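Technical note accompanying the year-one report. For the benefit of new consortium partners, we illustrate the data format agreed upon in the data management plan: each record pairs a sequence with a structure-token string. No post-processing was applied to the example shown here.
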Amino acid sequence: MDTLFAAAPYLEGYRPSFLVLAALSVVTLIQNFLTAPLAFVREEQTPGMPLQFDHSKLSFRALRTYQNSVESLPAFLAALLVAVIAGAAPTLVNLTAGVYLAARLAFWGFYYAGVGKVAGGPRTLSFVICLLANLILAVAAFVALL
């Protein structure tokens, strides 16, 4: 069976970025699956209701981590796909996507574990690295389109 990689050989250079995208999708789906046992089993949160804000509770952190993933993934997906379609440098795209994935995994780990301060700690640093990586991808896509 032919794949898009076979039909458009230049895409092969971006394979690592597509692996990152697949990994992010899988992790986000796993987070979605985990929200029920982590957030609702102890009845600390009520399904369909606003979150009970309390960073000390895993239930809050699990739901916020998933929500943040859902909010962040579309911007990363768009920047990545436009960068690939526009032909931005594969090395830059792959490296930036890898940094984004590493920072997202760190963010999730810090948030689930409740490590650091609510603002300004390691979770914030990893979030900012994600934003910067996404911005670099978006700028690379924009420049490649010019």
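Partners are asked to follow this layout when depositing records. The chain has one domain: 13-40+55-145.
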